[in-house]
Amino acid sequence: MRMYDIIMKKKENEELATEEIKFFVENYTNGTIPDYQASALLMAICFNGMSKKETLDLTLAMRDSGDVLDLSYIDGIKVDKHSTGGVGDKTSLVLTPLVASLGVPVAKMSGRGLGHTGGTIDKLESFPGFTTGISEETFKENIQKIGIAIAGQTANLAPADKKLYALRDVTATVNQVSLIASSIMSKKLASGSDAIVLDVKTGDGAFMKNLEDSNNLAKEMVAIGKLANKHTVAVITDMNQPLGRNVGNIVEVKEAIDTLNGNGPSDFKEVVYELGSQMLIAANKATTKEKAFRLMDEAIENKSALNKFADFVKAQGGDESYVYEPDKFQNAKYTVEVKATQNGYVRNIFAESIGNACMMLGGGRETKDSVIDLTVGIYLNKKVGEYVEKDGILATIYANDMDKAGMAKKVIFDAYELTEQKVLAPNVIKGVID
After folding, report:
1. Which one of the listed residues 22, 82, 112, 382 is annotated catalytic?
2. Which residues belong to any copy of the Pyrimidine nucleoside phosphorylase C-terminal domain (predicted)?
């Protein structure tokens, strides 16, 4: 079997056999197949797509490229959560300790930033000493002891996806339904949870730009989960503007801490609570959304969710004092304001442009080896539906390089659309697929 023939077959829009997909995954993982051939196949898949059978085969091959964790000895229904990626999406930082504080064991495997979107691992590494590069033994121990663990993809857990994830990020092969579905679900199936809750983003700042594509992705992932005998549900959430008010790494961590203290942005809290209710229901901790919401309110009010976050940070080597004293985080050197040139209501904020502006500042990766500046970011002073006067502040830039800030300023200004007509804030929950 030759990789050349597999590339040609997919280039000609023929269905790949199970054995061919296994051959590709195994040999790319062990280094026999080089990046340039893998890139060619990925691009052919982007042009011609994959059948449901191919997608399932790819998912299972990536899952089986390493260890599959057995968490059956841990009491309770283990629940995992994953987002397809968005701008300002710091949901896992609040959601996982919130539901863990309510007795739901959370076993989560996360990734770094992908394209214009941020990554959970990058944000968590804002805590001095924090690591997601923990062993499988530590991963399991932390779930059993404190009810939560978030790991990066170690060498033994879905290593094929780890390599392909990084390659897709820099070869313009990110936003293809089968590649996204198989990437996400291979990690979810390898991490050993009993139930999976998916946050499928839709809109300008998501990889799926329209609701139909987002629905298709959600259905594909739910189908894969159910074929693997996992309780799986997908929540479709809006990404036509950034989630919350902060975009960046440290600034998003601070916003997450604010939310755990009961002070977060309303749109962000709404997404957290919707996903949290699905996790609590899957774990048999609540029978209705209303009951789940009340439980989460209590966990925020009595600080058990915040304390669980501190326990989690400490368990993975981080300095948990930053959870209680977020002012200890390092700040960027410069602050630059983006001002409106007219009165009006914010009709739209192009989320992808905001994500790209953050990348310009150094907050994201241009290549696989790019080093992220954790301190830079953007604060959205105005969001969709809010009124701004001429010379009022639309957004605030946190930068360490004034040239980069200048470029980002123009992109952010152009990302805002104003209108004289009053605008309603959008619904952030677009649907649930189970």
Report:
1. 82
2. 345-419
